[in-house]
Amino acid sequence: MLTGLQLGGEFLYNRNNKSELDIWLQKGPWGKKSVNRSLAEERLLLADITTAPQVALQSINNQPIAVLRIPGITARELNDVEFGVSAYWLTNHQRNDWEAWSEPLLYQLNLLSAPDEPLKLGMDIFQHEANAQHGLAIVLRYHPVAGDKAFREKRFETTTLNVQNGKLLPAVSVLKSRTTDAPWLLVNSDFL
Predict the structure, then answer these.
(1) Are 136 and 22 in contact (CB under 8 A)?
(2) 77 has which bridge partners?
(3) Taking the domain 51-191, which CATH number applies?
(4) HSE (CB half, 13 Å, CA atoms) of 114?
(5) Separation CA 134–CA 47 (nearest Å)
(6) How far apart are CA 192 and CA 185, in angstroms?
(7) How wide is the angle at C-alpha 29 spanned by C-alphas 23 and 30, nearest 5°?
(8) Residues 12-64: pLDDT tens digits?
(9) Domain extent listing, the chain
């Protein structure tokens, strides 16, 4: 009896909690709810799901680091893909004061991946920054599919730089920063 209830509960849970990939598969040409999109649209939607950038706070060699992972780009392709970054630094948590910080971020980035692996960049977080009330907001601009003209922007934000077991920064739709005037800078191999 209990096994039947457990299986029924798992069935209902799985039926109502679909991942983005599950939804894409259902609405694709082979799914039960096909919406008849073109191959180019299908490819772009799949890339949005599978190559979405991530930002995490983690410790590498006992050093706190903000790690940017961009699965759709390799270090070797970096100069050809127009990958851009814009950043803000939280200077006063109480007053919600953020300052444009694109250029300092760009000069602090280090390449963590091999040339033909998915791109992984690291930014050292110094001890006085991790212990203080500092935060970081990063906006990434990238092409989800190589050769496609479509750009995507993904925003990440944290109001604390304490590293907690590889904590992923949440993607946000709007930054808390009152101004969004930080310059867009292209990341290329010259900076790494």
Answers:
(1) no
(2) none
(3) 2.60.40
(4) 2
(5) 33
(6) 13
(7) 80
(8) 777 778 888 888 888 988 888 889 999 889 888 888 888 899 999 998 888 88
(9) 2-36, 51-191
For 140-173, letters b (16+ CB in 10 Å) and e give bbbbbbeeeeeebebbbbbebbebeeeeebeeee
Where do the H-state alpha helices sit in 71-171?
A: 102-108, 127-131
Q: First-to-last CA distance in the chain? A: 60
Q: What is the pLDDT of residues 29-42, one digit of tens each?
A: 888 888 999 988 98
Q: How far apart are CA 77 and CA 90, in angstroms?
A: 32
Distances (CA, A) of 51 to 69, 118, 143, 190: 9, 10, 10, 24
CA distance 171 to 148: 23
SS (H, E, C) 18-71: CCHHHHHHHHCCCCCCCCCCCHHHHHHHHHHHHCCCEEEEEEECCEEEEEEEEE
